[in-house]
Specification:
By secondary structure, the protein is α+β, with helices and mostly antiparallel strands. 31% of the residues lie in helices and 28% in strands. The C terminus is likely disordered.
């Protein structure tokens, strides 16, 4: 099925940040941090179900003025330069429910360095300290807001195109399909309601079921031993 939405930028426009650019961004983000100070990170996508860092506290959190959106072409983690997938970013307007994770002070530099390697490989986000509401009071947390000026930004495509893009892309972290559906499952398990994502996930699961039924027995994925 051909995409009706504008195609992603050409593969040769894809550039990774240099180590110097990544470290400069990290230094800017932590310029006001003081030794002995714990910090928070806001997760709204895969950080919820695969944070890959140690934390001493986790809370459900609401971020006003932003919403979760599949608005970033992924050419590494969930796609390739030739067949990119889509991953979540924070876009302005609306409300986003997610999780905040408290990083102990002694782990701040190590943890933030690892998170920067994971999230800021192409500089697609604007790392921002934002106020998140929790049941135990507001906290200021690091959140990754999409940079709309960047070449990897795309206004979230129509749902038909989303299904096509998500179901064909695969990157170093696995399939875009697994990324989106696992995020939906994890949000639901945490008691977080995202109706649009839930509806999209239903369509993705139906697509996979129909796709498998349309394959010959030899083509169907076999269970792992």
């Amino acid at each position: 099925m051909p995409l009706t939405y504008p195609a992603p930028p050409a593969a040769n426009t894809f550039l990774r940040w240099t180590e110097q650019e990544r470290l400069a961004s990290l230094e800017t983000a932590l310029k006001d941090w003081q030794e002995g100070q714990d910090l928070w990170i806001f997760g709204y996508g895969s950080l919820i179900w695969r944070p890959e860092f140690e934390f001493i506290e986790q809370r459900a959190a609401t971020l006003e003025g932003y919403h979760r959106s599949l608005c970033l072409w992924s050419r590494i983690n969930r796609g390739t330069p030739e067949i990119p997938g889509l991953v979540f970013g924070l876009e302005q307007t609306g409300t986003c429910q997610g999780m905040v994770f408290k990083i102990p002070s002694q782990n701040v530099q190590q943890t933030f360095d690892a998170v920067w390697k994971r999230e800021m490989g192409t500089g697609a986000y604007l790392p921002s300290w934002l106020t998140c509401a929790t049941s135990q009071g507001a906290v200021t947390a690091m959140a990754f807001v999409i940079d709309r000026r960047g070449p990897a930004y795309v206004t979230q495509p129509p749902e038909d195109d989303l299904v096509e893009i998500i179901c064909r892309a695969h990157g170093t972290y696995g399939s875009c399909f697994d990324y989106v559906t696992q995020t939906a499952v994890s949000l639901k398990a945490a008691g977080i309601c995202d109706e649009h994502l839930a509806t999209l996930t239903e369509r993705l699961l139906h697509w996979r079921q129909d796709h498998i039924h349309g394959q010959s027995p030899q083509q169907r994925p076999q269970p792992s031993p």
